[in-house]
Design goal:
alpha/beta; 10 helices; 6-stranded parallel beta sheet
């Protein structure tokens, strides 16, 4: 009987290597990638049964990478393994369609449980956060900020890259668009959300979980 196929995405190679050793016995590791764009490309090519991904990754964060994948395959299963011990992050990930949310210090037992739950079509949340996440969902909490809901996918991509310190020319090359288009989106972001400097853009990106400190 073939083992479930798992794709790992984490920008820390040491973490990925540790996860590989942890999961090798029960799962087939089909690949390891280190950023969100590489995750999207690898997932489309390899078609894993489950993706285990960090949220905070260069170029494209894990949640936005998952959103891109779900456009092509709504059934894609993603378990987030993250250092963020924050119910707001977990709620955002689950509302975006994640199959699981595990805090890194809780692995390895919880990660294996989360992967197996995802394979069964179930959802797993680190128990330490489950109560807070449920309360936020029931109360319709807006802790992550309503402004985030009005960002287009392209704006989110550009905002992350700007917050990572990339120039308009570098962003344009990465996204295959013109520097003028990058500047247009940057202007729209600043105008719409009342931001007046690159520093405020970075703070906005951190506040809404698009990049981490």
């Amino acid at each position: 009987m073939s083992r479930p196929r798992v794709l790992l995405a984490d920008d820390h190679r040491v973490v990925s290597e540790g996860l590989k050793r942890l999961l090798d016995e029960d799962f087939e590791l089909v690949g390891m990638v280190e950023d969100g764009r590489a995750l999207v490309a690898a997932a489309k090519k390899l078609q894993p049964d489950v993706i285990v991904a960090d949220i905070t990754m260069p170029h494209l964060n894990g949640i936005d990478a998952m959103a891109q994948l779900k456009k092509d395959n709504a059934r894609v299963k993603v378990v987030f393994l993250t250092m963020h011990q924050d119910a707001a992050y977990a709620r955002r990930a689950l509302e975006a369609g994640a199959a699981g949310f595990v805090v890194k210090h809780s692995a390895p037992a919880e990660l294996v449980m989360a992967i197996n739950a995802a394979l069964k079509g179930q959802t797993f949340i680190t128990p330490a956060l489950a109560r807070d996440v449920l309360r936020q969902v029931q109360q319709g909490s807006r802790e992550t900020g309503s402004s985030e809901q009005f960002l287009t996918p392209r704006q989110r991509e550009i905002l992350q890259l700007l917050a990572e310190g990339r120039s308009a020319k570098e962003i344009a090359a990465s996204l295959a668009i013109s520097p003028r288009t990058v500047e247009f989106h940057k202007y729209q972001l600043m105008e719409t959300h009342g931001l007046h400097s690159t520093a405020e853009l970075v703070h906005f990106a951190i506040k809404h979980g698009i990049v981490a400190i």
